[in-house]
Design goal:
This protein is an alpha/beta fold. About 35% of the residues lie in helices and about 20% in strands. It has 13 helices and 16 strands. The strands form 3 sheets. It has an 8-stranded mixed beta sheet with strand order 8-12-11-13-14-10-15-16, sandwiched between helices. It has a 6-stranded antiparallel beta barrel with strand order 1-2-5-4-3-6. Strands 7-9 form a two-stranded antiparallel sheet. The radius of gyration is 26 Å and the shape is elongated.
Length: about 475
Amino acid sequence: MSLFQAELERLARLEPRSVTGTVRQLRGLTLLARDCPLPVGSLVAIEDRGCGAPGAASGAWSAAPRLGEIVGFDGDDAILMLFGEASGIAPGQQVRGLEVAPTIPVSPTLLGRVIDPLGNPMDGRGPVRDSQPVPLHAVPTAALRRRRISEPMPTGIRAIDGMLTLGRGQRIGIMAGPGVGKSTLLAMMARGTAADVTVIGLIGERGREVRDFIEDALGAEGLARAVLVVATGDESPLLRVRAAWAACAIAEFFSARGQDVMLLMDSVTRFAQAQRQIGLAVGEPPATKGYPPSVFALLPRLLERAGAVGTHGSITGIYTVLVEGDDLTEPVTDAARGVLDGHIVLSRRLAGRGHHPSIDIMESISRVADDVSQPAQIEARRLVRRLEAAYREAEELISIGAYVRGSSRDVDAALLLHDEIARFLQQDRREASAFPETCRRLNELALHGAKALAAGPARPAGVPT
């Protein structure tokens, strides 16, 4: 897109009239503004007077007005939420419309940068050059305009590439409770992925962990081809929700250029919690576990932004879901699983044993794995899952020494290969496994399993496993 076209689009989204209103009331997290006839989603500024600030003339506007967004209406009044604190706001202050549709400035030079949900750099490296505005809420791609997923998307993680192979344009969730390794797994993907560009949305992240994620978990190599959008947990729920939409818009920008993008979002649960705060603040009724209906309406819109869209590019969406109480049936987790093309479950039991990444391959599924894998890999994957399932069924008997060898051919083979399977599935967080090497090791593992099954004795009649 030329600079001239970008400026035309910027002008089209600006409010052509000078629309102003006044603050009437502060109500919880929201402000009521009278005489402000702007649509929902409009960006507004609340003009602060000097209020005795050093160097401010009496009655003069301050240099930095407070930004907010219209989120609803109460009769003739517009309901606003601020991107920052409401302290210091007084009745009668002027509300001025800036944009009638939310946008985010994007540019190819965003690679390697860390920005906030408004597109402002956070890394101290100066402004982003050659940026152009794109809408936060793009027109949804029609179902029949999406390409079929037919190519694998390597992540550099053996347990995923071998057992839960992802496709270019797939959307998958990482389901886990707190402290089980979601952020570490995301960083491993960001470093080892075969995607051209990685867009990472840190939604509601702890402030302490942002720098740790960038410098330690991601590293210079991962950051060089990544864009990070950060909204920490102490920021406005509007900014946390906006950060998720901004990450999607940036991913769409690079995908439209014909590039394969991996969109990593941590986490969908914090996005839902921020939208719950917004919904309840504007008067929505609480529904399932306090979540208002808008949460479950927005989740599909967010998750469907990824996919094999357009002619060439793709967006592979990886979304972490914080499972409250390790309950996979809690509302947000259940809703996300119904929309996504699979889920990766991290097990607290495996993490407690020092098995990292703690991916439970028996509880996880990739719905496109067979569509993007070679027949040999599909057969090898099925055999390894068969042996792992046999071991788990007899695990209690094995742990107490009650299992008798020869009772089951599958369990005997699983016992023989258990350590070898565990070594294949485990991986150091700094290690990246090339996709051909992962397939080779998986095929070797399956070959050993087939030999063990062929050599093992059949189960004697009447002897239980």
